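User: I'm putting together notes for a lab meeting next week and I want to include a structural view of one of the chains we've been expressing. I don't have a solved structure, so I'd like a prediction I can at least talk through. The sequence is below, exactly as it appears in our construct file.
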Amino acid sequence: MLMHYKTGTGIIQKVISKSPALKLKTSNTIGVRFLSSHYKFAVAGGGAGGCAVASKLVKHGDVAVIDPADTHYYQPLWTLVGAGIKAMKDTSRPQTDCIPANAHWFDEGVKEFEPDQNSLIMSNGRKITYDYLVVALGMELRFDKIKGLTETLGKNGVCSNYGPGNADYTWETLSSVREGNLIFTFPNTPIKCPGAPQKIMYLADTHLRKAGVREECTLTYHTTLPAIFGVPKYAASLRQVAAAKGCDVRTRSNLVEVRGEAREAVFEDLETGELTTRSFSMLHVAPPCGPLPVYAPLADTAGWVDVNKHTLQHTHYPNIFAIGDCNNCPTGKTAAKVAAEAGVLYKNLKTVMKGGSLESSYNGYTSCPLTVGDNRLILAEFGYDLEIMETFPLVNQAKPSWWSYILKRDLLGPIYFHGLVRGLWNGPGFFRKLFRFGSV
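Assistant: Thanks for the context. Below is the predicted structure for the 440-residue chain, given as structure tokens.
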């Protein structure tokens, strides 16, 4: 077993055993702990939601965090990496800096949930039991769902800002384009950060204009949705942005095949079923996304972890909660959603521990900071039933602004790493009420 722990001089690796079934990492500050097979809290996933909740729970008992990743990414910045504005290194931290102190970190995946036994089995076969479980494993990127995409991703001008390491090739491709068709796609599934597929198009427009080659290029956004964006207020603004930049928007259009060597993309019209083939110099693909198969014992009919959309408690197992991309809350899957859910989940889990009635309610808050090029951004904030939930009452957040772009580029990353994953940031709800004198 390899265990990591912090000292004043950094991370020391100490070999405890060579048994792969007993591999554990911990970020506690007092030294090596003995392995346990039971924890008060098991947190499946060490991303935004997992770290945020684990950081809140460590004061209430022993916490196991199960996640195989050694690196923690702030994924919303990958759009700016793809546009050459940020570097990939700006988006990451060692996982040891994000897993909370005194939590036990198992650097393994989750192989199976056994909710009837209050247990889970890790990818190395080790089983642990728990009193309370928080599921925070996110969603899968399914590049394989599009014929030919996996074989050509990262070459032949086929790129994506989704997934660690992919965004660098987006910038490599964009910076070398001098002419031709640049195509950007939105898939026919739920997706993390639903604004990202078109944000890179507007940033590409800005780059091409600066490079003096915009007139030699066409930019087209193919979306499976019936509108450019799901919230009408922001959709109206985005239509104006796209028109002003000369970007063609094609709705109900689904990418079904990529022919990398020929630089051709095949689209299906979701209304008529007709197939159309288009050539490209650059193809940016937002991949289909879906739930992890391991969610099956906890899932709804669509495969997502089945929770009450307000309390975040599982609909069948009262000692299980889910946060972030993995749950079936009907709202945009973003880091902002995670922040708003974290505070609600924490309060309700504490109430369950005390045997009380759940009162804290998640209102579906989510946010899409929509970069539209030219150092401007539309700050979309909304909740369930597409209710507008903007934080700043004296400005029109649907209007592209420089201040919201600075917020996205320079401030949200530090808030994420120093606030959210440390359990200190529950979203802007407090400020929204403050600015409106107590009303939501």
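A couple of points you could mention at the meeting. The two ends are 50 Å apart (CA to CA). The chain has a mean pLDDT of 92.

User: Perfect, that's what I needed.
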